[in-house]
Amino acid sequence: MRDRRERGGRWRAQVAGPLHGARGVVRVVAGGVLLAIPVGIAAQGRLERLGDDGGQPASRIAAVPLRADRFVTAFRGPGGLLHLNAYSVGETGGVVRHGTVTGGVTDRVAAARMGAGQLVTAVRTEGGALRVTAWRRLEVSPWIDRQGDGDAGAILDVAVAAVRREIAVTAVIQQDGTLTLIAWQVDSTSGTVTRRGDIDFGKATQPLLATLEPGRLVVASRGASGSLVLRSLDVSTAGVFTARGSLVGTKVTDIALATLHVERVVTAGRRLADGTLLVESWQVERNGRRAPRRRRSSRCASPTARSSSSPTTRSASWCASATGTRVP
Fold first, then answer.
1. pLDDT at 12
2. For labelling, which of 12, 24, 170, 246 has a CA lying 20 to 30 Å from the CA of 111?
3. Angle (CA) 135 101 125, round 5°
């Protein structure tokens, strides 16, 4: 999930979870300082702050839950260096930071869980190139072990997702603006990172990835015209891509993407036309089958949400299928 910044640039927040039961972690940047705050959700849906940890200058933060009581934050810290913090969260919600490891200079940071205490980071290095690194969360000092690296060419932006037990995918914007997906094999034991297949699309910005189930993923981006572009793909165990379907949507910016279940994702973005929030859900059919549905969307700008709907038939593997709702 991308960072969200309050108007005026005073803080950023992201929810990463779950941890213990109905808990997640909100990681906030306030005045450039990282705070990790466990949040409990009571039976009535009430949020309760349980604990926190902070004090490190930070930006470009990603949070990766590894199991019910373990998570890692990856961020750009002092000197522009990649930092990874290892945390545990107790039954009462207290946060313990066990240790920090550092990497090279970076200005873009993305991270994803691979499984069994392993994660990957995808960063833009000081020289502007893509670097994918495997890490393992340890139970003793130094708490995080750097395993293997994989490098690719110059990029402008990057997102990463795990699509199989040993396959991670990066979505990068190349120097010429081309959106490229690259598959990486990440050995679950040694952490060796090996580049596999890749696939190119058109000019784009703001790449995002969401895994539906093992071997199936969705990539969202802004196309050259500023419109939301969604694509569904299969990824084999050998890291080979098969494109299944695509759709060009509304002109938006500040987009977000999340998986609901194996055949549905949601997107959120700010309409270029009027600056209002647009939230939509999308049905993603397997194997690129035709999936016509009615399209309904919601615009949110004031305490009362405005909405409109019209029948639309979507070809290939995409259709909008639900109304977004503004939370007061």
1. 46
2. 246
3. 75
In 3-state terms, the chain is what percent helix, strand and coil (to 5)?
Answer: 0, 70, 30
For residues 44 and 67, the answer to whether their CB atoms sit within 8 Å is: no
Q: Strand 23-30 to strand 33-41: parallel, antiparallel, or no bridges (unpaired)?
A: antiparallel
Q: CA–CA separation, 313 vs 320, rounded Å?
A: 9
Q: Domains for the chain: give ranges and CATH numbers.
A: 4-323 (2.130.10.10)
Structure tokens at 290: 């035709």
Phi-psi region of 170 (alpha: psi -120 to 50; beta: other; left: phi over 0): beta
What is the token pair recorded at 250? 């509304």
CA–CA distance, 305 with 322 (Å, rounded to integer): 15
| pLDDT tier for residue 25 given thresholds of 50, 70 and 90 | low
Q: Backbone dihedral region of 94: left (phi > 0), alpha (psi from -120 to 50 degrees) or beta? A: beta
pLDDT of residue 24: 57
- Predicted TM-score (pTM) of the model is 0.79
Which residue type is seen at 38?
P
Distance CA 86, CA 84 (A): 7
Asked whether the beta carbons of 77 and 83 are under 8 A apart, the reply is: yes
**Whole-Å CA distances, 269 to 140, 229, 305:** 42, 12, 15
155 Cβ contact partners less than 8 Å away, ≥ 6 residues apart: 108, 124, 128, 129, 130, 172, 173, 174, 175
**Cα Rg, the chain, nearest whole Å:** 19
Find tokens 């959106």 and name the residue.
Answer: 179
